[in-house]
């Protein structure tokens, strides 16, 4: 670093030790999931999944994970933070998931604030489940629930009750298969429970049916399990209601903790790592959508370097010398490079890409957060506008 090293009492403060322990834990978990994915990739002979594990390892490396003191928000309030300089963008990566979650929470709050309930409407937390299907892969259950959701949104029953909302898809791993379900924070009129149950059951049956599977609903009603609870902006939760904060937590749970990935069998983990287009797990819909899009545009540059994690499109190598085979036009994605290079060349390209990206992001962050001091887990300290 060209700037002189400045010391800060804050770096030693308890809050700072907390961000340091978060950073260390994310880095450690990132390596754990990367190790797990690498062994699954080797067992299933997947060059692409192995490459994703390499990217996660770079993302979780001590030189790439930072803590910062004295970041500031729009009101000039100072806070400590954790992040990565370069991002791998892998769905399985703890650091990139944390950044995605932070951004989704920000968008969800803005969307909610933009769409207060009208007369006769309330905020409700709607949960839509489907039966576990023992031999279905995780990705398959996610595609199916997304199809069922698309069908539900077109139904008259849904359109007449729900004006807007935020949707998150979550899964848990059980001994019977994946319990994949949807949480919706909806702005709606009264939703008749039995009506919703029968509509959703129809949609789930149709979505599995389109894949050639007939499924059974082993419930007392013979239908899918759904739940509707009133969301209170203030006050405590009760049997029939939930606080807005808890409802948001449910909707955003879709962003997995590393522990959930560690429970997913090898073959399904490889499938998740390989997929180019992941089903849309987070969505702002209906009357909230317009404001959500505006919010998204204004939030284009976030300090946590989050980009769309859905299709790996952000994994572009922005300098052409990395691939002699592509002379001009769109740079090759890391995905395609991983598939076409030999392993040694790939690892070298990846390390070079991360080093460049890291240096660039460090400069951007220091310029944007001019009061902050950034320290990587490897010990490099940076702050202020750097001369590069
Ligand atoms: Zn990452």
Task: Describe this protein's structure.
The chain is an alpha+beta fold. It has two domains: 9-90 and 341-387, no CATH class; 108-300, no CATH class. The chain is 44% helix and 18% strand. It has helices spanning 14-43, 47-59, 94-113, 138-154, 156-161, 193-209, 244-252, 258-263, 266-274, 289-298, 334-340, 343-368, and strands at 65-72, 78-84, 122-129, 162-174, 177-188, 226-232, 241-243, 282-286, 373-376, 381-383. It has a six-stranded mixed β-sheet with strand order 7-6-3-5-4-8. Strands 2-1-9-10 form a four-stranded antiparallel β-sheet. Helix 2 (47-59) packs parallel to helix 12, helix 3 crosses helix 10 and helix 4 crosses helix 6 (193-209). The protein is globular. Residues 1-14 and 297-327 have low confidence and may be disordered. Zinc ion binds at residues 56, 59, 87-88, 90, 93, 95-96.
Number of helices: 12
Largest sheet: 6 strands, mixed
The structure class reads alpha+beta
Strand line-up across the major sheet? 7-6-3-5-4-8
Mean pLDDT reading? 82
Give every kind of bound small molecule, once each: zinc ion
Number of domains: 2
Helix content: 40-55%
Total strand segments: 10
Q: Please write the string of helix (H) and strand (E) elements.
A: HHEEHEHHEEHEEHHHEHHHEE
Oligomer: single chain
What is the radius of gyration computed over CA atoms, rounded to a whole number of angstroms?
23 Å
Uncertain stretches = 1-14, 297-327
């Amino acid at each position: 670093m060209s700037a002189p090293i400045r010391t800060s009492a804050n770096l030693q403060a308890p809050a700072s030790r907390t961000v340091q322990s978060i950073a260390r834990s994310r880095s450690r978990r990132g390596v754990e999931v990367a190790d797990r994915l690498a062994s699954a990739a080797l067992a299933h002979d997947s060059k692409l999944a192995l490459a994703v594990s390499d990217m996660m390892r770079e993302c979780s490396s001590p030189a790439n994970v930072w803590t910062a003191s004295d970041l500031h928000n729009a009101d000039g309030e100072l806070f400590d933070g954790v992040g990565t300089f370069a991002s791998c963008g892998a769905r399985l990566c703890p650091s990139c998931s944390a950044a995605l979650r932070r951004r989704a929470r920000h968008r969800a709050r803005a969307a909610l604030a933009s769409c207060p309930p009208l007369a006769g409407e309330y905020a409700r937390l709607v949960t839509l489940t489907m039966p576990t299907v023992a031999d279905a892969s995780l990705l398959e259950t996610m595609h199916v629930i997304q199809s069922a959701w698309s069908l539900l949104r077109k139904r008259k029953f849904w359109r007449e009750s729900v004006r807007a909302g935020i949707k998150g898809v979550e899964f848990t791993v059980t001994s019977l298969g994946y319990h994949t379900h949807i949480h919706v924070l909806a702005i709606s009129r009264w939703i008749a429970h039995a009506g919703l149950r029968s509509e959703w059951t129809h949609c789930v049956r149709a979505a599995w049916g389109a894949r050639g599977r007939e499924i059974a609903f082993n419930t007392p009603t013979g239908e899918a399990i759904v739940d509707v609870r009133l969301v209170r902006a203030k006050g405590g939760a009760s049997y029939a209601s939930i606080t807005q904060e808890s409802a948001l937590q449910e909707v955003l749970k879709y962003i997995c903790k590393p522990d959930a990935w560690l429970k997913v069998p090898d073959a399904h983990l490889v499938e998740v790592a390989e997929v180019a287009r992941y089903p849309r797990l987070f969505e702002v819909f209906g009357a909230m959508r317009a404001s959500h899009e505006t919010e998204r545009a204004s939030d284009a540059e976030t300090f946590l370097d989050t980009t769309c994690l859905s299709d790996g499109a952000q994994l572009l190598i922005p300098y052409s010398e990395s691939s002699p085979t592509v002379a001009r036009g769109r740079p090759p994605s890391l995905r395609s490079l991983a598939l076409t290079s030999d392993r040694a060349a790939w690892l070298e390209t990846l390390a070079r890409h991360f080093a460049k990206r890291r240096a660039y992001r460090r400069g951007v962050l220091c310029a944007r957060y001019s009061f902050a001091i950034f320290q990587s887990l490897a010990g490099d300290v940076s702050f202020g506008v750097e001369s590069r």
